[in-house]
Every structure is written in C-alpha cells, then in structure tokens.
Amino acid sequence: MERRSRRSSARSKADLSTTLRRAWYHLRLSVRDPTRVRTWDAIVLTAASPEQAELYNWQLSRAKRVGRIAPSTITLAVPDPNGQRIGSGAATLNAIFALAKHFHHLAPIDSTVADASNLNSISSFYESSNNGYPLPFFVELLRKKHILLLHAGGDSKRVPWANPMGKVFLPLPFMAADDPDGPVPLLFDHILAIASCARQAFQNEGGIFIMTGDVLPCFDAFSMVLPEDTSSIVTVPITLDIASNHGVIVASKSGSSNDKCSVFLVENLLQKPSIEDLVDQKAVLDDGRTLLDTGIIAVKGKAWVDLVTLACSSQPMISELLQCKKEMSLYEDLVAAWVPAKHEWLRSRSLGGELVATLGKQNMFSYCAYDLLFLHFGTSNEVLDHLNGTGSGLVGRRHLCSIPATTESDIAASAIIISSTIAPGVSIGEESLVYDSSISTSVQIGSQSIVVGLHVPKTQNEVFGNSFRLMLPDRHCLWEVPLLGSSERVIVYCGLHDNPKNPLSNNGTFCGKPWKKVLGDLGIRDDDLWGSRERKDKCLWNAKLFPVTSYSNMLQLATWLMGLSNLENANLLLLWKMSDRVSLEELHRLIDFSKMWLRSTNHQADLAVGVVAACLKFGLLGRNISQLCQEILQKEVTGIEICTEFLSLCPNLQAQNSQILPKSRAHQVNLDLLRACDDELMAAEMEHKVWAAVADETASAVRYGFKGNGTMTCLVELS
C-alpha cells in the first residue's frame, strides 16, 4: 500500500488531441468488430419526458447508422415517469429496470434459469420485482451485462438553445476535418469514444458505467483499473477554490498509485464545501488540492448485482417520490449508500434506509485520474470557450455547409459554420457558432454569438424591403423551435451570459442587461411577464417573453426586445402584448420534437445533395459519395429519386475529365450510387470493374514514374 503522492501537482493534463484520436480509433474498432474489441451490451440515456426520449431514440438510431454504436448494442432512452422530475438517483434505478424489461422483451428467459442459489450476493430486502416475476429473474438478465448509462434528461437552463436537442447532442466539431463528408461530431459521439476505452476495466464482470451528458472527460481510460465487486467514482485533483462549487471526495490515506492514477477507499462525501470544511474533514491532499467528484461512476460485480436488485424493486420507491414531489440524487443519496460514514445521514433522508439496506454491504473506491481534462458544457459561454480555447486546434470551422464567396459576404475566419446554408450579403462575427441553420441575405450575426436551427425564409426580405436587417448583437444566442399543434415556430433569444435561473431581484439579466433597465426601456410591466400574482421566483426562465405570431412579426419583435430598434415604439409594444407568448419553462413542454428532427434531417440531406451535385458536375470526384448518399437517403420520399438522378450522370464522368480522372474513381462513384439506389445486381458487376481498373492503374504506376519536371520515364519494363 502506498501513501498519496506529493508529485501529483507536477503531472500534466491529458493532451486533448492525442486522447480523443486514440479513443475514436478504439471506438471504430469496437463498432467494426465487437467480438475482438469488446463494446457495451447496452447504451441507455435518461430523458426528461416521453417526447424527449423519442428524440433521443432517433439520435441513438442515427449513431448506429453512422457507425458510432455497434449493431449488436442495445440502445434505449428512458423518460422520467409522467415527465416528472425524480432526481438522477431515481432516474438511474428507473433506467436500469426499464432496460431489464427491455432485455426480457427481446429474449425472454425461463424463470428457472434465474436460480436464486446463483445469486447469493443479492439483497433479501425485496422478494419480488414489480412485474410479478421473481426478483432473480430480472437480476439474472443484467448481472453479466455491461451497460453505459448517460444522464441526459432535465432542462438545460444555462444552455437554453441546447434544450430542444438535448445538451448531450450539441455540436462539438472536434476532429471534424478528419472526416469532411461525415456527419457533424456531437458531444455524444465524443463521450461514446471515451467511454469505449473504459469498457476493458470491467473485464468479464457485469457492471454499469455512468456518465453525465454535459461533460467530456478526456483521460486515459485504457489504463483504468476498477476493484472487483465494488463501486468506483472517477476523481481528479483540483484547487480548493474550485472545489467550493462542486462535490468533493474524501479518500483514505493509503491505497495503490502510480504516475497516472491512484485507487483509494472513499471515506466521505462533501457537497460544495468551504475551505474550513475541507480542512476539518481531512480532504486536502499533500499538494494542497482536493479530489473533485467528476460524476463518472462505475459499479461492477456484487455491487452491480445489488444495484440491479434495488432497481428492479424500485417502482414503489419512485411512486413515493412522485407523490411527495421529491427527488433522489445519484451523487448525494444513492452514492452515499456505499460510504459508511454517510449511512447515518442517509437514513434520515427519504428512502435512505432502503438504500443502505440494499447497497450498504459494498464499498466505494476513488479512481483518481491525474491527467483527466474536464470539459464541462454547463453554460453557453463554456461551449464557446471549449470551441475557441481548449480545443480550438481540433475544431473543424466549416463542415457540410454552403457559404458564399468572400467577396459576397463577411464571415470571420474563426466563425464555426456547421450544417448550415449562408446566403450572400450575410455577416458573421469572430468565434460565433452557426449550426443547422439557413441564413438569408441581410442578416448580421455578431461576435461570440450562437445561432441554432434558424431558418429565415428568403421571402422575408421581400416583406420588409431593404430597410430591415435582422441583427444579433455580440455575445447573444438565438434559436428557433417548432411548436406542438401549430404550424408556427417561435424565435427565442437571450444573452450569452444570461443565467435564466437568476431572480429579477438578484442580478437577473436579459440580453446582458439588468431586468430593471429592460423593463424601463421597453415599457413592459412585471405582470406582463409573470402575471399579477405575487411570486419570488421571477426570472428569465419563467418570463412569458417570446411572442408566437407571424414570422415577420417575430423578427421585428426580436430586434425590439434585444434593444436594437426604436425602444419607445408603441406599435411594437402593443403587438407584443397582444401576441400569444411563451416562457423558456413552457417551451420545453411545447416543442414538436418530431417536426424538429424531420426538419433538421431534411436540411442536412439537402446540404449533402448540393455537395454531391457540385462534385459530379464540377469536381474530380474526391468526396465520399457513399457517405453523402447515406445522408441523402434520410429524405424518405425523395432520397432514392435524387440518387437515381445522380446515377444518370455517371456515363459522362470519365469523358468530361478523361485526362486526369482515374477510371477506378469514376467506377467507384458509379458503384456508390448503385448501392444507394439499392441496385445490388448492377453494383456487383460494377465492383468487378472497379477492381479491374485499380489493377490496371497499379500496374501502370509500377511501370511508369515521373521525374521532377513532370516528364514520364520508364522505371520497370514488365513485358
């Protein structure tokens, strides 16, 4: 046993590029051949509502389609019951039980297989599951499975523009240039890559690896070692000032360690401790730092069986939480059951006795990864910081987009344009992010701003004439959301640094300005936003601020509310008051997720159509036509028709570039399009032509070479 090292302060953080590239390489191998490179048996996401869960299931299907998840892996999104918040701990139990039922539905097993004699470690606290089956029946389904669970539910109040899509699926174009014709990398994709490396730590023991959907933890998960039959929490040393806003782990003074990591028994858990608390609880390391709870939890072996046992008997507990409108936290309540020092405190909490009785026999260990780089996407500002700071060298700033010539627009080189169409006459400032949008002429986007899902019709310019320009100031966010039961969309906006949770009376802001100034400048009263009833929680989150009216009116009112037009315009004030309005809080329940998904899918398919068309008509066929066609085929009605039209251009490809286009490349494009059109018979014939052309070109390359001046010389005479 070794004492905790004083050298930890000298250890450097993981190199983001090296860590991610290695993780992605491993992810691709595990997807390609999961029998050789072990992958997860199931990937589960928690969701805030059934509607959000449906959106997440579409995203999971997309991840399988584009090669992020192995075909053999079960995927499932599990909503909180009745769309009511139950806390991350209860959501964990609910998700595990839902997965057990899902496995049973896919491959029912005979209850005699689940012999209780094989489950000696199972707690006897509960005698049966909530579905009427003996408890060992469900436990046996999961005890040897390897599960990745991502907590992705809840409201993204500090990143409100990511609320519709789910924060875990926000765009993160790290290494996008490595695959220029591939789908836009999402935060979810990078989390999958890191998590794929952690699978080896479970070996053949069943278990679960729990992560949060708003953090990308970059560390060497290949070297992770987890003690058997226990739970473990991943930690990283941090300074004491940062610790005061987070959870802290108090670990024992002895354990095992090396230059990369250490494993120590967890002795206590602290939540947002003061420096005095850290000192009193002996949480300060020898180097003056303390251990941050990263929210990454691994449970394996007997501890996993105990957790499954609890989960499969948890429905009465969850029903009690729903009735009492209480929540059970994973990071405070559930984890405390594995830490004896917290048992007395936990028993005083709602349902704490059940947690201790079922889980309390096993311990928790701290796996401290000294090199862990903790990328948190908790606020809009943090998102831009990671794109333009920490990971700026990895960011693909133009990906699957259509942008005009530099003489027809003013787009900063540092701006990130992803899955978007930009018309001439548009201005986009430094370090801004534009995603999944169509920006028409006469739109100005400031610096360090975020635009998501905005589709400004070209006809709007005709409605307003040349006098109106949609302007988004520096450090602002603007996004567009389709509404349930309505053909209308709502345009939403706020300042980059606005905290929607900050009360009106405590530094609350809208578009970067204090509420008092906003209301005074616009002539809006408190009761216009929050009603006449007295309430103490007045804030941006629950302000009925955003009008639902015609698109042209919403654009005008947006510029007015952001303070960019005549603030004393009585007509705009009256129009705003007469309009139906929604708050950010209400908006989450009103989103038409299916319409949003369909619009985004079709938009990306249209971009792929444009890329392929340009490649076939003007280029040398250097794009990945097969991959682009997969996006085009997401247009269910017209996808194959479009690919068929492209196929008709193939006979002319070789003729129009006969001097410089290799015949094998022309044949390969033809093959890709035949497969996209589902013509396997012709594709098989074309594949022979591809290989024949490759053989001819290879032989020619061996026979001939080029001098420095470009003249051909015979190197080898094979005849």
TrEMBL record:
Query: Boundaries of each GDP-fucose pyrophosphorylase domain copy?
Result: 141-550
Q: Could you confirm whether the keyword Kinase appears in this record?
A: yes
UniProt keyword terms in alphabetical order: Kinase, Nucleotide-binding, Transferase
Q: Identify a single GO molecular function assigned to this protein.
A: nucleotide binding
One GO biological-process annotation of the entry reads:
GDP-L-fucose biosynthetic process
Show the Pfam families listed in the entry.
Answer: Fucose_pyrophosphorylase
Query: Any coiled-coil ranges, and where?
Result: none
Under what name is this protein listed?
GDP-fucose pyrophosphorylase domain-containing protein
Q: Which organism is it from?
A: Castilleja foliolosa
